Amino acid sequence: MEGRDDRKMANGVGKHKLLVIGPTEPWSVREKLCLATSVMKSGDQNWVSVSRAIKPFAEPGRPPDWFSQKHCASKYSELLETTEAPKRKRGEKGEVVETVEDVIVRRLTGERIEELKKLIKETRETHRKLKREAELIQAGHLDTKLEELWEDIQLKRKQEEEEAELKRKNTDAAYQGKYCILQSFYLDLFILQV
Questions:
Q1: How far apart are CA 72 and CA 50, in angstroms?
Q2: Which long-range contacts (CB under 8 A, 24 or more apart) does 47-52 make?
Q3: Quick check: helix, strand or coil at residue 43?
Q4: H helices then E strands: how many in the chain?
Q5: What is the torsional sign of CA 82, 105, 27, 177?
Q6: How far apart are the first and last CA of the chain?
Q7: Distance separating alpha carbons of residues 51 and 73, to the nearest angstrom
Q8: Which residues of the chain have pLDDT under 70?
Q9: By CB atoms within 10 Å of each CB, which of 26, 96, 109, 145 scores lowest?
Q10: What are the angstrom distances between the C-alpha of 183 and each of 11, 21, 176, 179, 188?
Q11: Predicted local confidence at residue 50, as pLDDT
């Protein structure tokens, strides 16, 4: 049984204790890619440096401690757990060429590229639609529908604001719940020590 654990350690799987810390909302592919590349640069033992390096890349609306050291370690542990160890490839002098970190970064880079391609396609379609509408408005063909278009725009804005507020409230509630659980745990621990 010890040999199996050693192999996991050598492959990079099982190196980190899986921590259940931080919000339950999933990280974006972009955030995970930033984390993986930062770990690749700074190493998986320097969470202060990793956390500091990726803070500027948080998605809008994330709480300030989204990239805390513990949360980064926990998320990276999840990435390790869901990544298969690379097959051993040897270079000219017998060294291993590809690491688990390489596999994670390569996979996330591919996912991010696909996300960006989809975003570009959606943006182009939206641009074409808006350009077509602008031409129709300038030609005077939509004068009767301007009020309706304006109401649609206001409704979409209101929905986006409500969704953002709901997301913020859910994140705050998740953090508050975890804070209360931790507070209760420490109180129990204190009572046991007394």
A1: 8
A2: 47/72, 47/73, 50/76
A3: coil
A4: 6, 0
A5: positive
A6: 39
A7: 9
A8: 1-24, 88-96, 177-180, 182-186, 188-190, 194
A9: 26
A10: 37, 14, 10, 6, 9
A11: 94
